[in-house]
Amino acid sequence: MAPQDLESELKKKPFRPFRIVTTTGKTYDITEKDVPLLWIGKRTVLIGLRVPETDPYFDRYEAVSLMHIVRLEPIPVSHDQQAA
Known about the structure:
Strand content: 35-45%
CATH architecture: Roll
Strand order of the largest sheet: 2-1-6
Distance between the termini: 31 Å
Shape: globular
Structural class: alpha+beta
CATH topology: SH3 type barrels
């Protein structure tokens, strides 16, 4: 995947939550437009992981090669979440 593809998904207005799917089947849910938790490089994306998920600060991070990102999937959002 090109870094521009991931960046354009983050910049969509309104922001829509999405899932990053990798070649190993591991997934990462990007549920809010939170740039400090997602750093996009030329070949790698660093994904900040919060523990617990409600914590505003990431506890650890994972580096994922962009060539191992298979696709981005939309995460369905309920009407209540859209209104918030």
